[in-house]
Design a protein that fits this description.
The protein is of the alpha+beta class. It has one domain. Helices cover 33% and strands 11% of the residues. The strands form two sheets. The protein has a three-stranded antiparallel β-sheet with strand order 1-4-5, with no helix packed on it. A two-stranded antiparallel sheet has the order 2-3. Strand 4 and strand 5 form a beta hairpin. Helix 2 packs antiparallel against helix 4. The longest helix is centred in the last third of the chain and has 21 residues.
Amino acid sequence: MTLTNKTVLVGIVGLALASTAMARTEPNSFLNRPANSHPALMKQLAEDEQVMDRFMRHFGMTRQEVLAMASNLQMARLPQDGVYLVYNVSPQEEIRARVMFYKKGTLVWVDSMGRPLLKVSCANPMVRGTDDGSNPLTATIAPTPTEVVRPLSGELGETIYMTNDADVVLPGVPEASPMEFMSMAPEAPGLVRSSSSFGFLSLIPLAGGFISSRNNRGGENPVPEPTTMIVMGGALAAAAMRRRRTAK
């Protein structure tokens, strides 16, 4: 084989590997393939039964209701940095929640009111739902006024940003805006208000352990996670944000 042929072969293999990598989603995504446009999202929901099942279980909706909800979504960017509860699915198809930090400009799918519902790169829900498909959960925290997220005219990909690797699973927990988590964190009992690395590290043991929402509509009811876990998760994210700002 000549040098030219070898070069061409290497190029073809490289392109194939790059295409495969681009076709993958983030770990624990609700999607099985990237869907960075509204038609692509609708197509995957309609054709991939596994993806549809995840949305039906999380939101407690029928197939038609999920499609109706998704049909009204618009792409937008987050107007500010924020901490969110974002739901993901494990390899065992368990729906869990994790405290996430997203930077300003992160692409999200928003509803007609401008409320972020899904993260574009993975379609993981940014609002709480119900896993039993029949009993909708009721929020107990009053919503904090926040800036409405304006839809985009263009549609692009995005990268995820996380505060830490600890799962904070929150079955039956009211959803909260980024500002609510930021305001809750300093009020947690026993927390050290410090921007130092010691203050941040001292919070880590408090956020261990989690409960998963099982892939079982008729199984046992999930055990409610103590509200303290929400506060600790928000505190960890808040500390991480302070450390980033201090390092700049």
